[in-house]
Amino acid sequence: MTIAKYIDHTILKPNTTLAEIEKLCVEATEYGFASVCVPPYFIKDAARLISGSQVKVATVIGFPFGYSHYTAKVAEVKQAIEDGAHELDMVINIVALKNKDLDYLEKEINAITQQIAGRSVLLKLIIESGILTDDEIVTCCELYQKYPVQFMKTSTGYADKGATVEAVQLMRQHLPSQIEIKASGGIRNYEFAKSLLDAGATRLGCSASVAIAKGESVAGAGY
């Protein structure tokens, strides 16, 4: 299997154009990336553009800071599913985590998972590991493993520090096997991408996806 199968081909900048979404979708189908991750505004366009392929449409919820009220996130989730999203990357309320308000985080995840129950939709929780302590990362692992979450994700790509091998390893040590890990933020070459997969990630969020996929053939390694 090539590394492309692990990659969510991503564009989330605030000035994204439809032409860039079209290019993203063409590249995703050409290289066989797992999904395209697009701003909510472009879900319908992406769904149309990847129709007939194996590529999924992913989008973001509560992005990039996560501190919107969970009722607002619920509305985002409903709309994203209605528009055709297959995968949802939601930023948890990091402010609540930093203030040790685990009760709020439980209310948030309960509200979100209720919207997804019975649907073929993947939920990835972004914890922004680069601005968390190790103890806070472990707290997230312990909290969210009690819920029907498919992935925990390291980063939005908007914090000063993105994915690290150490964060992925720590998450893997403290998560049950059924919860996968998505690494994102600052992944710009094949070597780093492979190191994150070796550490336990099973999905990568990348905007440099094509360069990474091409770098695989140069590196000659086995993903």
From TrEMBL:
It is found in: Cytoplasm. Pfam families: DeoC (PF01791). GO terms for cellular component: cytoplasm. SUPFAM superfamilies: Aldolase (SSF51569). InterPro entries: Aldolase_TIM, DeoC, DeoC/FbaB/LacD_aldolase, DeoC_typeI. It catalyses: 2-deoxy-D-ribose 5-phosphate = D-glyceraldehyde 3-phosphate + acetaldehyde. Its EC number is 4.1.2.4. Pathway: Carbohydrate degradation; 2-deoxy-D-ribose 1-phosphate degradation; D-glyceraldehyde 3-phosphate and acetaldehyde from 2-deoxy-alpha-D-ribose 1-phosphate: step 2/2. Keywords: Cytoplasm, Lyase, Schiff base. It comes from the Bacteria. The active site is at residues 89, 153, 182. One of its GO terms (biological process) is 2-deoxyribose 1-phosphate catabolic process. GO terms for molecular function: deoxyribose-phosphate aldolase activity. CDD domains: DeoC. Belongs to the DeoC/FbaB aldolase family. DeoC type 1 subfamily. PANTHER family: DEOXYRIBOSE-PHOSPHATE ALDOLASE. Catalyzes a reversible aldol reaction between acetaldehyde and D-glyceraldehyde 3-phosphate to generate 2-deoxy-D-ribose 5-phosphate. This is Deoxyribose-phosphate aldolase. It comes from Paraflavisolibacter caeni.
